[in-house]
Amino acid sequence: MRVFVTGGTGLIGSAVVAELISNGHTVLALARSDASAAVAGKAGAETIRGGLADLDVLRAGAAQTDGVIHLAFSNDFSSAEAVANAVAEESAAQLALGDALIGSDRPFVTVSGTPWIAGRFSVETDPLPTDGPVGGRSRTVNAVLELAARGVRAASVRLPRTVHNEGDGGFAGLLTGIARQSGVSGYAGDGTQRWPAVHALDAAVLFRLVLESAPAGTAWHAVADEGDQVREIAEVIGRRLGLPVAAVPTETYGPLGVIFAADQPSSSAYTRETLGWEPKHPSLLADLENIQP
What we know:
The chain has 293 residues and is of the alpha/beta class. It contains 11 helices and 12 strands. The chain has 2 domains: 2-162 and 197-225, 3-Layer(aba) Sandwich (Rossmann fold), CATH 3.40.50.720; 166-195 and 227-265 and 283-290, UDP-galactose 4-epimerase, domain 1, CATH 3.90.25.
C-alpha cells in the first residue's frame, strides 16, 4: 500500500514511517521544509512539499495514494490563542483529506487523545471530550469517523498523554522541559493523578494494524502503561536532572493546566484482543531513565 503520512518526521511519525516501510508499504510524506524532506528521504519515503495549511497539497497527496495516516500538529501550547489556531489549522487539514477520500473505500487513520472518564479507566467505546482547550480536535475526529457513511474507511488511534522514545515526548517531555527551565521537577495537584503512556515504536505498530485492517468508523487505544502517577514521573525526571521535586501551581502549565491536573487512566484491552497488538518496548518510567542531565 502507498500511504500518505502527515507529520512523518516527528517523534511518532518517524516511527510510523519506519514501521510501514519495514512491512512492505511505501510512504509519501508531507514535508514543510528542506530539513524535513531530507529526514523523510533518508528514512526511505518520497516527499511532497507543503504544510497543514496547504489544503491543495493535502488533497493531492491523498489522491495519489492508497490511504492516509494523519499525525501532524503544530504542538504550540504557549497560549490559549495558539492552541486554538493549531486546532483550527488541523481541523481544516483533516476535512480536506477526508473530502479527497470520499467514495474511495480507502483508509484514513486519524489521531486523538484517550478520553478521561471520572472514576474509571477509559475504554475504546467512550466518547471523546468535545469541550476544553483541545475539544475542537475531538469534534474533528468525530467528523472524520462519520465519513465511514460516505465511503471512507476512517478510523482513529487514540494516543495517551505521553508517547515516548529515549526519554522524550508527550506530557512527560513537557514536564522535563519545564523542569530544566524552572529548576524544579514539578507536578500539578497532589501528583496522584494518573497518565497513560506508550512507547512510540509500539504506537507505530498499532497505526499500521489499523491502516491495514480496522473497520470503518472505529477507535483504538494505543495504551501500554494504563496510568503512571504524575508524581512518580516527576520524581524520575528530578532524579535524572538533579533537581528538587515539588507540587507547582496548575497555572504553570498554561492552557493545558486543567488536563495536566486530571486523573485520566486508560485501557487498551479491547484493542489488544481485537487487533492482536501487544506493546513490547520499555514503559514510560523505564524510558525516562534515558534523560540526560
